[in-house]
Amino acid sequence: MREAIAHPANHSRRRWLVGGVIVILIAAVVGWRLAGKGSQARGARKVGGPIAVVTALAESRDVPVRLSSNGTVTAIQSVDLRAQITSTVKQVHIREGQAVHAGELLFTLDAGTEEANLKKARAQVEKDQADLATAERNLERQRSLFRQKFVSQAALDTVQNSVDTLTGQLAIDRAAVEAARVALAYTEIRAPFSGRTGLISVRDGSLVQPTGASSSTASPPIVTITQVDPIDVAFTLPEKELPGVQQALAAGPLPASAATPGTDEKFTGKVIFVDNAVDTATGTIRIKAEFANQKAKLWPGMFVNVQVSPRTIHNATVVPAQAVQTGPDRRFIYVVGADHKVAEMPITLSYVEQGFAVVDGLQPGARVVVEGAQNLRPGSVVAEADRTGPGNEEAAKGESRKPGKGKGAKPA
After folding, report:
1. Do residues 191 and 105 both lie within one domain?
2. pLDDT per residue over 236-249, tens digit each?
3. How far apart are CA 234 and CA 10, in angstroms?
4. Residue pLDDT, tens place only, 57-91
5. Which residue range(s) make up the domain with 291?
6. Within a 13 Å sphere around the CA of 123, how many CA atoms are in the beta-carbon half?
7. How many CA atoms lie within 13 A of 10 on its CB side?
8. How far apart are CA 53 and CA 313, in angstroms?
9. Which of 69, 156, 269, 311 is the most buried (most CB within 10 A)?
10. Which of 312, 347, 378 is the last residue of a domain?
11. Residue 1 pLDDT > 50, yes or no?
12. What are phi and psi of 48, to 5 degrees?
């Protein structure tokens, strides 16, 4: 009876034991498979295929150094015209914003007072001339009488003094005539040079009078004339570029170009002025360039982008700008060797322009990595997906698309 009761319990324990063994076997198999896959992945990473990159050949050529700066358009000359006499405006001959030529009549002032003063001064001169002629004839008679001992020396000196006095008075009155002529000339206001007019602050009948420009009660100018053709552009360059600019100017005219932001129109001119001192606050030198402006596209006060090329780097090693990598403490380039392995080549960056860079420490003809450098380490094996050159990437890519051109063109 006891044996019949114990048999079911032994059977239950066997079932649990068998189940446990099965679970352990399953776990072992799963673990073995996962471990195998991990080792395969590590092995795949360790012995992975070549890394696809885009490369280019380092070239040797002469590179003009283009210096860019922000410039301000300034008029070569600008003048405020003011009245030199007190009078009224008789006629305004110009409009606001009009182009005028040197010597062109701008305003006519009432000349009645000045004409009368000139006539008076001339009449005074005529009177002085008549009085002087009479005194000179009297002096000649007195000299004749003095030689005959009929008059004394004192009497002769008195007549001589009268002649001298009238001679001086005649000179004074002739100067008054010239002053009256000048005042009369002030009744016509003419353009001192060719340019463009600004705002006109007077109209016919307006009273004008001379006022000092520095006076606190100075009235606004009658009009301002500004020369706009040719026109200057003022800009600054770093002081380290001063020797190159001076050498270029010594060799001949230094060309300059300017472009207004947001437009494709460019203007060509030449550097005409280099300041005689460096700005110690900014470490820059002030420069001016002159531009022809027949169509008045450049306007005083405008901001423009200026470029000058004072020097040329001869036999420079040129690579695409994106080939230059920046490390923690230096710049370098990945160079592809004959065995398709890359090596870091430390370089010094001499000049950068849009699309390419001039570097020192790299030999022309070296094949450098342009794209895909983020996946590389020294010694990595690469496959060149395309070949480009500095400044002509699109042309090179077009060649690579042709059948049989470049490794990237090979069929899979």
Report:
1. yes
2. 999 999 999 999 99
3. 106
4. 999 999 999 999 999 999 999 999 999 999 999 99
5. 67-75+232-312
6. 6
7. 6
8. 30
9. 269
10. 312
11. no
12. -65, 165
